[in-house]
Fold:
Amino acid sequence: MPDVPPRSAYPDTRAWLRALPALPARSAVDSGPVPAQPSTLFLRWLEEAVATGEPEPQATVLSTATAAGEVDARALILKDVDERGWWFSGTTDSPKGRQLAANPAAALTFYWPGLGRQVRVRGRVEAGTAEVSARDYLERSVTARAVAAASRQSEPLADEAEYDRAVAATVARIEADPGYVAAGWQAWCLVPDSVEFWLADPGRRHRRWRYRRAGATEWSTETLWP
Ligand SMILES: Cc1cc2nc3c(=O)[nH]c(=O)nc-3n(C[C@H](O)[C@H](O)[C@H](O)COP(=O)(O)O)c2cc1C
Structure:
């Protein structure tokens, strides 16, 4: 990013934000034909994001809503992409877990700024089997497993020492029983109805095209106004 004077050099935050560079020059070119399956194009773009050094390109934003329509969103890590959909994981008793149980409609948003690319995946979330969730859990580090098992995620934490004690006790439990799987750990699959690919153009002639589900494995595609 080119040097931008500090915020204090501007009359207000609005002026500073306007001075920050957006969508630096890039070529609005995709490197191949439009495949029949959106997952094929997604994985091609993700491979290109990895190859060009995007930081943590497998990170995404999951948007959910309560049954009453209150919207929520948070970053998380993509765990897999297969013929069923896009996989991620977390705990069922977290806010996201409760929201998905009450309202399975969700979206994932990927943004790779170095490539000027965004992908939006929208659809319904299905819970993976206990076996798939257990495999996902056991692939995590011991500390990550302990945090997932011990945490009352997103609840107020009155005392940091309580967290340390809970995690230490769970690490000891996992070391004694390496096959231990936390009851609330869940792998979820976002089964898409639509997947949109967005490609920045420095001249604002952004390219957008959307896949819409037309059958179990069939998709229609359309170009969208930028
Ligand atoms: C880059 C990044 C990756 C994350 N990965 C996960 C993840 O894979 N699963 C998860 O439950 N939370 C993950 N988190 C934490 C979530 O953003 C969030 O704080 C947590 O899941 C609680 O969300 P909730 O209160 O909406 O349930 C990640 C956060 C960041 C910034």
About this structure: The pocket of flavin mononucleotide is lined by residues 56, 59, 72, 74-77, 88-90, 94-96, 153-154 (CB under 6 Å). The beta strands are 59-65, 71-77, 80-81, 86-91, 105-112, 117-127, 185-199, 207-213, 219-223. The CA atoms of residues 61 and 75 lie 4 Å apart. Helices lie at 13-19, 38-51, 95-102, 130-138, 142-150, 160-176.
